[in-house]
Amino acid sequence: MKKYKIALIKGDGIGPEIIDEAVKVLDSVASCCGFDIAYTEAFMGGCAYDITGDPLPQETINISLSSDAVLFGAIGGEKWDNLPREKRPESGLLRFRKELGVYANLRPAVVYDELINASSLKPSIVKGVDLMVVRELIGGIYFGEPKGRDENRGWNTMVYTRDEIIRIAHQAFKIAMTRKKKVCSVDKANVLDVSQLWREVVIEVSKEYPEIELTHMYVDNAAMQLIRDPRQFDVILTGNIFGDILSDEASMLSGSIGLLPSASVGAKIGVYEPIHGSAPDIAGQGIANPIATIASVSMMLRYAFGEIIAADKIDSAIKRALSEGYRTKDLAQYDAKEVCSTSEMGSIIANYIER
Ligand code: IPM
Ligand code: MG
């Protein structure tokens, strides 16, 4: 029997609750599809800082690198907001991405028909939206040097090298080949030199993908177009900070940030996590929506292991739970037949898989 080694990083806030449900669903799909999972738990974020004084202990990196994939919940919370920057949970996460070399962050935004009323946009605008933000994750202004601050100035540098742009562009084009074959590269080439290089290199790489329709958009216009007519997009290729912003914006098309998964991939290993944060305000109450994390398990099966049947089973079980009217509290006012807890939602989805 095939066996996959998974590093489990639950993190802070609602992280542990939603990961437990993802594990429940993964176990049930594994037994249906005939593979085995071995979990090793590792710590990152505020909980790791509390125990070790470091939001990203070396052991977490080691466990992750010796696994086949990482399943990650969420980190952070007010409790750690006043720590010096390098001790903060977010710094641990950024270092984690860098150490694992996960340069491509894939963030799909899909509108489920069942939840079309949950979107803050009109159903006629969002119906059928199915796009993917491909965000460069370990370069750009998040990591560029020089950076620093003194009493009166703070500075960061947005820098991309040709090689960094080439590898993320390939990712976007490859993903687009499995979708509608459209890539919109988002930059600010009318103002930024780094974006000019970005655009030139993306055009070069696109020559290897003659079937792809490549367009370019300035980031301000892209922010506007996402709201005006989101269905025009298939794959959005962009840098680190623009992708951070646009993926949050795109997530709202679907109505709840609690629905959307993500994958961060590179040459070595992938990290699969919900796009939402640790929501400390609702932690421990059993009301968090586990669907984004469960959908992240589906991305893991699809992209890391090629277990397409298992991934499809999870996706259809999620759709079924929604179409039967099961809702966690965040979506309770949208056509709910039954409001369920975090763990009930996990069990419902797991049961659909087993049947
Ligand atoms: C995200 C988050 C992170 C980011 C933060 C927590 C560092 O917003 O994953 O989008 O900016 O990348
Ligand atoms: Mg973000």
Protein architecture, described:
Helices cover 41% and strands 20% of the residues. By secondary structure, it is α/β, with parallel strands linked by helices. The chain folds into two domains: 218 residues, 3-Layer(aba) Sandwich (Isopropylmalate Dehydrogenase), CATH 3.40.718; 109 residues, Rossmann fold (3-Layer(aba) Sandwich). The strands form three sheets. A ten-stranded mixed sheet has the order 2-1-3-12-11-4-5-10-8-9, with helices on both faces. A two-stranded antiparallel ribbon has the order 6-7. A two-stranded parallel ribbon has the order 13-14. α1 packs across α10, α1 packs across α11 and α6 crosses α7. The protein is globular. Bound molecules: 3-isopropylmalic acid and magnesium ion (MG). The site of 3-isopropylmalic acid (IPM) has 4 residues, from α4. The site of magnesium ion has 2 residues, from α9.
Question: TL;DR?
Answer:
The protein folds into 2 domains: 1-115 and 253-355, Isopropylmalate Dehydrogenase; 130-238, Rossmann fold, CATH 3.40.50.
The end-to-end distance, rounded to whole angstroms, is: 22 Å
Give the CA-based shape: globular
Number of domains: 2
* Average residue pLDDT: 96
Helix content: 40-55%
Strand order of the largest sheet: 2-1-3-12-11-4-5-10-8-9
Name of the CATH class of the largest domain: Alpha Beta
Low-confidence stretches: none
Strand content: 15-25%
Number of helices: 12
Structural category is alpha/beta
- The biggest beta sheet, please? 10 strands, mixed
Task: List each distinct ligand once.
Answer: 3-isopropylmalic acid, magnesium ion
CATH homologous superfamily of the largest domain, by name? Answer: Isopropylmalate Dehydrogenase
Indicate the CATH architecture of the largest domain.
Answer: 3-Layer(aba) Sandwich
At CATH level 3, the topology of the largest domain is Isopropylmalate Dehydrogenase
